[in-house]
From TrEMBL:
PROSITE patterns with a match to the protein in the record: HTH_CROC1
Domain HTH cro/C1-type: 11-64
Entries under Gene3D superfamilies matching the protein: lambda repressor-like DNA-binding domains (1.10.260.40)
Coiled-coil stretches noted in the UniProt entry, renumbered to this chain: none
Name by which UniProt lists this protein: Helix-turn-helix transcriptional regulator
Pfam families recorded: HTH_26
């Protein structure tokens, strides 16, 4: 089966946006890297293969088709002004969150205290900021990659550190859908690199599950947030016992 140039180019853009190589895609699909490269170079893949690639990337076929028609790279990061606009207006940040997670307007109206003019105004602002494409009937096409990242030490990351992080950890993790693990130890540089790759893989898997469940009604979905982090770190309460170097 020959796949159109536009669809293949859209798949390639999605791979780049997620930082995924042909080798990583091949591993996720349990194929050889050569086989994956051959599929892309010849544009010869069955519908089943196309669906498998979309599942790995966290894309629906309809979303891929829209991306192929749009012919532009999804944003892997927001610009500073875009992040600042979200930080400055919590309602706008919520509208962006709901848009990325494919909430239907009826669900938004049922679950949040927005009037229709207020919701339309928020979507129009996101459209003017270049984060979504607003279509007739308040349908939304996000212009960001599904797993877009914050700017290092940008407005969103600073807001998370100073405001949202304490809120995230304020309540105990004892609910049906909760899990909290704090793992510490010493690794070689190669071990650290492997863990970083695993975190990236987990982030992509999470994005894939978001894409799979995006079409479900809001009542059948649970809002879930993951904090994935890794850094050289020692508990501050251990600091008095550290021996000065040199």
């Amino acid at each position: 089966m020959s796949v159109s140039v536009d669809l293949v180019n859209a798949l390639k853009r999605s791979l780049r946006a997620q930082g995924m190589t042909y080798r990583e895609l091949a591993q996720r699909m349990r194929l050889s890297e050569a086989a994956v490269k051959r599929m892309f170079s010849r544009r010869a893949m069955s519908l089943l293969r196309l669906e498998q690639i979309c599942e790995v990337l966290g894309l629906g076929l309809a979303e891929l088709g829209a991306e192929a028609g749009r012919g532009r790279e999804p944003m892997a990061r927001l610009e500073q002004a875009q992040e600042q606009a979200l930080v400055d207006d919590p309602a706008l940040m919520l509208a962006m969150f709901l848009s990325i997670n494919r909430w239907r307007q009826d669900d938004v109206m049922a679950h949040f205290a927005f009037t229709l003019p207020q919701w339309t105004g928020l979507l129009a602002r996101l459209d003017r900021l270049g984060m979504i494409e607003l279509q007739p009937g308040n349908r939304v096409r996000p212009l960001t990659a599904r797993n877009f990242r914050w700017l290092p030490d940008g407005p969103m990351e600073r807001h998370f550190r100073t405001t949202l992080l304490s809120d995230y950890f304020a309540d105990p993790f004892d609910g049906e859908h909760d899990r909290l693990l704090l793992l510490s130890g010493s690794l070689s540089p190669d071990g650290v690199a492997q863990m970083q790759q695993r975190l990236d893989d987990l982030a992509r898997e999470f994005d894939g599950l978001l894409a799979r469940d995006a079409s479900l009604p809001a009542e059948q979905r649970v809002g879930v947030s993951l904090v994935l982090a890794q850094k050289p770190w020692l508990l501050r309460l251990f600091e008095p016992y550290r021996r000065e170097r040199g």
